[in-house]
Amino acid sequence: MTSTNPVPSGPGASYAAAGVDIEAGDRAVTLMKEWVKKARRPESIGALGGFAGLFDASALKRYERPLLASATDGVGTKVAVAQKMDVHDTIGHDLVAMVVDDLVVCGAEPLFMTDYICVGKVVPERVSAIVKGIAEGCVLAGCALVGGETAEHPGLLGPDEYDVAGAGTGVVEADAILGADRIRAGDAVVAMGSSGLHSNGYSLVRHVFLERAGWSLDRHVAEFGRTLGEELLEPTKIYSLDCLALARTTEVHAFSHITGGGLANNLARVVPDGLHATVDRSTWSPGAVFRAVGELGRVERAELERTLNMGVGMVAVVPPESVEETLALLGGRGVDAWVAGEITERGDHAEAAALTGDHPN
């Protein structure tokens, strides 16, 4: 074959010359192995490095009618904060929280997760730190990390840029599914405190702090008791084992994971037609970071509440007779919890969920 195009001189093209370092990828796998080993369950089969993660499904034989639940999520622009701070061992924790706490809403026990890490350049120590966070999150959630993928995309992402995503699978007995079908008028809405911003609303948060206010991530903020960056990287609280313990101990009708969309919108997702959830703001005071976003950005309350969790990361809807036991169990597990509202009959034109009152100063 002949060509009229001149052939460039010099060494031939290679994957490495194009920006993909296979040896660095292999070293990343070696470094992450010790962390993945910590995130195992008895049902985990095989070791890191296979083409697929394996999980012994015979463990499901103890269920009468096991239903598998699946969820997938990412961490969003919170990764931009981690990249600027060069702190990468908490983002994985956030990833697990976003996935497993969606699974537990229907009453499912998280069984296993897989992850996907996309990087502009494989830096083995950085990838290992991300996986470390994922593995530690899986331990806190009681699930196994059975596999994942690290992809190097030079030209698409900068050398220090990356994104993460994950998928999880859980199981719940068919007749134990929690949700709207169980909720009744008179049920109590029990709020569980968040650890901070969690992993939603960071486009707004970064815009307010870094662009409008011009704050640096290493700025010490007295109201936070630490630097801005440390506050923004506070890991998302993982509630899955607390919720499962609650469902196994007392009667629970539904859970709602408070993520993007805020408290009212996420609670509305589990409220059935004909009923209305009212949450009283005066029952808690959001943390300083929420107040700072609102004040520095001059953000209207409605915008704050549909973007951020405002201090509530998970909600349990329980019958009145379960309230005392619910609060005692959660308190004993170190979860800040309180009765924040109730379920009532819905009047004409009423929303499925609404917030009333004002937060205490």
Features:
single chain; 361 residues; alpha+beta; 60s Ribosomal Protein L30, Chain: A; Phosphoribosyl-aminoimidazole Synthetase, Chain A, domain 2; six-stranded mixed sheet; four-stranded mixed sheet; 24% strand
Task: Describe the SSE topology.
Layout: H1 22-38, E1 44-45, E2 54-55, E3 66-74, H2 78-85, H3 91-103, E4 109-119, H4 124-141, E5 144-152, E6 162-173, E7 188-193, H5 202-212, E8 220-221, E9 226-227, H6 228-232, H7 240-249, E10 254-257, H8 262-268, E11 275-280, H9 288-297, H10 301-307, E12 312-318, H11 323-332, E13 337-345, E14 353-356
Parallel strand pairs: 4-5, 11-14
Antiparallel strand pairs: 1-2, 3-6, 4-6, 7-12, 7-13, 8-9, 10-12, 11-13
Helix pairs in contact: 1-4, 3-4, 8-10
Summarize the structure.
The chain has helices at residues 22-38, 78-85, 91-103, 124-141, 202-212, 228-232, 240-249, 262-268, 288-297, 301-307, 323-332; strands at 44-45, 54-55, 66-74, 109-119, 144-152, 162-173, 188-193, 220-221, 226-227, 254-257, 275-280, 312-318, 337-345, 353-356. The chain is an alpha+beta fold and 361 residues long.
Question: What does this protein structure show overall?
Answer:
There is one protein chain. With 361 residues, the chain is α+β, with helices and mostly antiparallel strands. It has 2 domains: 21-173, PurM-like, N-terminal domain (60s Ribosomal Protein L30, Chain: A); 180-356, PurM-like C-terminal domain (Phosphoribosyl-aminoimidazole Synthetase, Chain A, domain 2). It is 32% helix and 24% strand. It has helices at residues 22-38, 78-85, 91-103, 124-141, 202-212, 228-232, 240-249, 262-268, 288-297, 301-307, 323-332, and strands at residues 44-45, 54-55, 66-74, 109-119, 144-152, 162-173, 188-193, 220-221, 226-227, 254-257, 275-280, 312-318, 337-345, 353-356. Strands 10-12-7-13-11-14 form a 6-stranded mixed beta sheet. The protein has a 4-stranded mixed beta sheet with strand order 3-6-4-5, with helices on one face. Strands 1-2 form a two-stranded antiparallel ribbon. The longest helix has 18 residues, at 124-141. Pathway: Purine metabolism; IMP biosynthesis via de novo pathway; 5-amino-1-(5-phospho-D-ribosyl)imidazole from N(2)-formyl-N(1)-(5-phospho-D-ribosyl)glycinamide: step 2/2. It comes from Streptomyces taklimakanensis. InterPro entries: PurM-like_C_dom, PurM-like_C_sf, PurM-like_N, PurM-like_N_sf, PurM_cligase.
